[in-house]
Amino acid sequence: MKLVFATHNKNKFAEVKSMLPKHIELLSLKDIGCNEDIAETADTIEGNAILKANYVRNKYGINCFADDTGLEVKSINNEPGVFSARYAGDSNNSKANMEKLLKNLKGKEDRSARFKTAIALNMEREEIMFLGICEGKITKEARGNSGFGYDPVFQPKGFTTTFAEMTLQQKSEIGHRGKAMRQLIDYLSQ
Q1: pLDDT (tens digit, 9 = 90+) per residue, 21-39?
Q2: Catalytic pick from 43, 68, 110, 186?
Q3: Hey, how many other C-beta atoms are within 10 angstroms of the C-beta on 99?
Q4: Is 78 among the annotated ligand-binding positions?
Q5: Within 13 A of 71's CA, how many CA atoms are on the CB side?
Q6: 110 appears as a binding residue in the annotation
Q7: How far apart are CA 60 and CA 179, in angstroms?
Q8: Which residues pair with 2 in a beta bridge?
Q9: Catalytic residue at 68?
Q10: What is the rounded average pLDDT of the residues 158-179?
């Protein structure tokens, strides 16, 4: 089975590919000749995932899934949410995004947060949504060198380490994307 994962993010592609069973051939946007950035203009995480999956399916005619992930921090009105990748501006600069988040949390007691991943599957024109949520909190400083995005400042509930201090396998087992991916994999295995 061939499936396109609608992302240009190499780290995310590698993380997802490592979770899929070997009988699923995962293709990237580059593999199908899609070099354009697919606009994420929806006002929800779920909406952005749907936009990307439908774009690839409609333009290239290939079964596709797309994800969108957002970090929601309770004490700052669930920011950055749908704007997680562009929180500090359109450059998608992870370091700047983390710095802005930590600045906005200065003096806040409640640092509870959650990562939410929505995966939209568009297969044979059937659209299905899978959601994965990981509860946790934002640390006071960045820790760790693994992962990407907000991983150095997100500490999952029940752990003393951030996502960036975990191996890819550990993160996949407990993380938001891993939870949503397992739902997708279960569906594809039926």
Answers
A1: 888 899 999 999 999 989 8
A2: 68
A3: 15
A4: no
A5: 29
A6: no
A7: 28
A8: 25
A9: yes
A10: 92
Known binding residue 41? Answer is: no
pLDDT score of 11: 80
- 84-106 per-position pLDDT tens digit: 988 998 877 899 999 999 999 99
Q: Is 68 a known ligand-binding residue?
A: yes
- Between the alpha carbon of residue 22 and those of residues 1, 25, 112, the distances in Å are 10, 7, 37
Distance from C-alpha of 151 to C-alpha of 110, rounded to nearest angstrom: 19
| Orientation angle between helical segments 176-189 and 10-19, nearest 10 degrees | 50
Task: Identify whether the C-beta of residue 50 lies closer than 8 Å to the C-beta of residue 120.
Answer: yes
Contacts of residue 70, Cβ cutoff 8 Å, sequence gap at least 6? 45, 80, 81, 82, 83, 84, 115, 116
Q: Residue 23 annotated as binding? A: no
Across 11-25, 43-57, 114-128, least confident range: 11-25
DSSP bridge pairs for 138: 154
For 35-66, write each residue's pLDDT tens digit.
998 988 999 999 999 999 999 999 999 999 99
Provide the 8-state DSSP code for 8: -
* Spatial distance between the Cα atoms of 117 and 86, rounded to a whole number of angstroms: 16
Please tell us whether the domain made up of 2-189 is placed in CATH 3.90.950.10: yes
- Residue 28: per-residue pLDDT: 94
Instruction: Tell how many helices (H) and how many strands (E) occur in the chain.
Output: 5, 7
Tell whether 7 is in a known binding site.
yes
**Domain map of the chain by residue range?**
2-189
